[in-house]
Specification:
Helix content: 40-55%
Number of helices: 28
Shape: elongated
Radius of gyration: 35 Å
């Protein structure tokens, strides 16, 4: 290994080797348990940013661990055609070149789209590989490939034949920029400054009037009624009468409907069924006419009379002016309200009554609700489960048609001769009713979510009954964002149940968002996304990967910053330097014939690290099973840096061993635990360790199959916690006792170091100390060499009586005396101790109050309560030590 950590020298070579040896492939294997993750397909609209890398790295960490645990671990990569997003970007590109999609025609537009997909799928795949993702690239799936086309066709036809797909008129989100219906997920709501316009609607045949308030006066062109609440006594006598629509002159009825809030505004509302969801429902209840006043691009149509051809904004300005002139504008009030905008073109969306294709949701939704309530599908957090259930239990029929060219075209054909509607698994050649070959296909395409909803099925072979589908389905974990729980997770669940009879996945892990340095969500549209390749080129993939999880819960938002990455690079250097130390020991060591028992010949420090490592493995496993991989990374970071490097390696330097097998074994297992997070650096060091494989008795005795498995850290076994505290074996009991002894020795070292730091004693100035064992003197005699070296002492004297004029450090079994009269002031020391005692009493009282709060105990996570209890006990012990130290002064 080079002395300096330089990831550019080995990352790409290692990844190519992994691909060459097929480490990421998985197949049905009856001798192994399956574990499967289907990658949420990124949109093929542009390169990925670090927000995407965050989500995909979570999956890679999970899959790498399961692979090492002996599972047949399959991670299927893929990409989504993102029909509307892609079309929007291509149309924009064409416009810049003075072209239109209509001018090109469908076939030419299709070719341009396919070229776009080819380009960006290549870029995205390259990003996957640079990040070190261990997905099975032979199974890369695209939502528009042939198998997905067949899956989409089968599902559409089956649902249509059940009568669950129908064409009807309902309010949808219409984007006047995209000229298409869009889903709720594609609508961003923004608070904007607007106005309330108060208008007079005169009663027919009278000078009396009612006043309505609206934020969109241009929609009055489509009014077909005004409504009051049936319990509103002010307007009881007006129900059944009519008013004359200002400017238009149309006579419309006054109706009563309970949806009207009589406390809001004047208690009278205008009803525009074509342009408001509540008005649309009221219109159905009262059999009102539906008058659409807009064209597809958001201009007033022929139903708007003299305002025809004006944009919504132009029509509003002119209508307000005309209302003033007519004397029917009462007043205008400033009003801040939430308005939906298209996430792509940023224009306000239009609620619009439109003829579209819908899927009936009642029968699909119920089983999808039950499996979540019953725990067959588990969400990572209760709040996400509530989000899912709330949406599913109030689900409306799903609008699946889009007025665009890109995507899966709706497979409905009409016979031009007899009008027969034909819906088959393959494109019909002739009308089955009259034999005519003059057939026309529906112009609309399917909502992208329709095909994405089949993702866990289609990636494993559906609609065919493949071995993959039998073995890997249901999959194990779906990692995705909270913003698409309803629009994607829910749909995958009900499609999985409907077409496979099983849930598509057992766990839903909701990850946080990737934020830029200013805390703003990274977005391709905003252009604030950081390309992970740029970071990798400067710092390496491992540094980027670990920086995203250090100290993070995967459900929390990840804020990217160069500073964070730089700090993580220091940790990579720490790992690298530790590797050099271990290798230097191996280079000097003789070849081993084998060790009968790995615990034989262990010294004090070896027994301590053996227990600590065993505890770490158990803790990491526990957190992984709960998908707390961010918190597991904290444990690994702290252990490697603070326990292994700062103490155990230093303890090794106190020994005169030519070779320490425990050091070697511990380091190898730490590399294995770190590997899912930082695959490249761990493999590079591991490969160097393999050069000394004849010194590893466990490796030397392996059979050919196991030997081959251990030739890469990718496929080597995941460490197992194998020490049992309840074990009656005297050797094991001794190991745990020695570990507790070493814990106290480390506390002594830390305490002396703290005094040195507080008194600003430089490291090159060694000091004397005295030690008075209260009990177990032999423990401290054995540990004296560690205390002397790591606390930077030139002498540690065992005494029977406390020496005079010393700082006293009191521990459970020993007292330490630091004769630092030349460095410290007794009065200052007393004042400092009193302040520390005051602070710790405050913390004790705070913890006791918190744990005594039944509301906190009932609602807080178990891990938080446990941590608070441990903190309380630790503070109580520390208080006792401080008070004894103060008394000794």
């Amino acid at each position: 290994m080079n002395k300096t950590y330089n990831p550019k020298e080995f990352e790409q070579n290692l990844y190519n080797e992994w691909l060459k040896k097929g480490y990421f492939g998985a197949k049905p294997d009856k001798t192994k348990k399956p574990f499967c993750i289907i990658m949420p397909p990124p949109n093929v609209t542009n390169k990925l940013h670090i927000g995407h890398a965050f989500q995909e790295t979570i999956q890679d960490i999970l899959i790498r661990r399961k692979r090492k645990q002996g599972y047949s671990a399959l991670w299927v990569p893929g990409a989504d055609h993102a029909a509307l997003s892609t079309e929007s970007m291509i149309v924009k590109m064409l416009k810049e070149n003075g072209q239109t999609k209509e001018g090109l025609g469908r076939e030419k537009f299709k070719q341009i789209t396919e070229d776009w997909y080819k380009k960006y799928m290549g870029l995205i795949t390259n990003q996957f590989k640079k990040m070190g993702f261990s997905c099975d690239f032979d199974r890369f799936t695209f939502t528009m490939d042939e198998r997905n086309n067949r899956a989409v066709r089968k599902v559409f036809v089956d649902l249509y034949r059940k009568g669950w797909i129908y064409r009807g008129q309902r309010i949808i989100n219409w984007c006047v920029g995209c000229k298409s219906s869009i889903s709720d997920a594609e609508v961003d709501f923004k608070e904007i400054k607007g106005h309330f316009y108060h208008l007079k609607y005169k009663l027919k045949g009278s000078d009396d009037f009612v006043v309505v308030a609206t934020t969109r006066p241009e929609t009055m062109l489509g009014d077909t009624a005004v409504a009051v609440n049936p319990t509103d006594k002010r307007y009881k006598n007006l129900v059944g009468k009519s008013v004359v629509l200002p400017l238009v002159g149309r006579v419309i009825p006054i109706i009563s409907d309970s949806f009207v809030d009589k406390e809001f505004g004047t208690g009278v509302v205008k009803i525009t069924p074509a342009h408001d969801p509540n008005d649309f429902e009221a219109g159905k209840r009262h059999n009102l006419e539906i008058i659409n006043i807009l064209t597809a691009d958001g201009r007033i149509n022929e139903n708007g009379g003299k305002y025809k051809g004006l944009s919504r904004e132009e029509a509003r300005a002119q209508i307000v002016k005309d209302l003033k002139n007519e004397g029917t504008l009462v007043k205008i009030e400033e009003h801040i309200h939430s308005v939906g905008h298209c996430e792509r073109c940023k224009v306000p969306i239009e609620p619009l009554a439109s003829d579209q294709w819908f899927v009936k949701m009642k029968d699909l939704a119920k089983p999808a609700i039950d499996v979540v309530k019953d725990g067959e599908v588990r969400f990572s957090e209760e709040q996400h489960k509530k989000t899912y259930l709330n949406w599913m239990e109030n689900l409306q029929d799903w609008c699946i048609s889009r007025q665009i060219w890109n995507g899966h075209r709706i497979p409905i054909f009409r016979c031009s001769k007899c009008g027969e509607i034909i819906v088959e698994y393959a494109d019909p050649k002739a009308c089955p009713k009259c034999g005519s070959v003059k057939l026309t296909q529906d112009e609309d395409t399917l909502d992208t979510w329709f095909s994405s909803a089949l993702w866990p099925l289609s990636t494993l072979g559906f609609p065919d009954e493949t071995e993959d589908l039998k073995y890997f389905y249901p999959t194990d974990v779906m990692v995705t964002g909270k913003e698409i729980i309803n629009l994607w997770v829910a749909r995958m669940i009900f499609d999985g149940l409907q077409f496979r009879g099983q849930v598509p996945f057992r766990n839903v892990l909701i990850n946080g968002l990737g934020l830029d340095e200013n805390g703003i969500k990274m977005s391709k549209t905003l252009g604030n996304g950081v390309d992970p390749i740029d970071v990798i080129d400067e710092f390496g993939a491992d540094t980027l990967r670990f920086s995203m999880f250090s100290g993070m819960s995967v459900g929390s938002n990840f804020r990217f910053s160069n500073k964070r990455v730089e700090i993580t690079r220091n940790f990579m250097n720490k790992i690298w330097n530790a590797g050099q130390f271990v290798l230097s020991k191996l280079e000097k060591a003789p070849i081993l014939d084998g060790i009968a028992d790995i615990y034989d010949g262990q010294d004090f420090a070896d027994k301590w690290i053996t227990v600590k490592l065993n505890e770490l493995i158990g803790l990491v496993d526990q957190k992984f099973e709960k998908f707390d991989i961010g918190l597991a990374s904290v444990e690994l970071y702290d252990f490697f840096r603070n326990i292994f490097c700062d103490y155990y390696i230093e303890f090794n330097k106190c020994e005169n061993k030519q070779f320490n097998f425990v050091l070697y074994k511990t380091f190898r297992q730490l590399l294995s635990l770190l590997h899912p997070y930082v695959p490249f650096i761990t493999e590079e060091i591991y490969q160097n360790l393999l050069k000394f494989g004849d010194k590893d008795p466990t490796l030397a005795k392996m059979g050919d199959k196991d030997y081959e498995k251990n030739q890469s850290i990718v496929t080597s076994e995941w460490p197992v916690a194998d020490l049992d505290k309840s074990d009656k074996n005297s050797l094991t009991k001794d190991i745990f006792k020695k570990a507790r002894d070493m814990d106290e020795i480390i506390e002594i070292i830390k305490a002396i170091r703290n005094v040195r730091a507080e008194k600003q004693i430089p490291d090159n100035k060694k000091i004397k100390a005295a030690i008075l064992p209260i009990k177990d003197k032999e423990v401290f005699e054995e540990g004296a060499k560690y205390i002397t070296k790591l606390a930077l002492l030139n002498e540690l004297e065992f005494v029977k009586e406390p020496p005079a004029d010393c700082i006293t450090l009191v521990f459970e079994r020993v007292k330490i005396f630091l004769p630092l009269s030349g460095f410290t002031d007794k009065t200052e020391q007393e004042a400092k101790l009193k302040k520390e005692i005051e602070d710790i009493i405050f913390e004790i009282e705070r913890s006791e109050k918190m744990l005594g709060n039944q509301g906190f105990v009932a609602k807080a996570p178990e891990v938080l309560i446990k941590a608070e209890k441990e903190k309380l006990e630790k503070n109580k012990t520390h208080r006792k030590v401080l008070e004894e130290t103060l008394n000794s002064l």
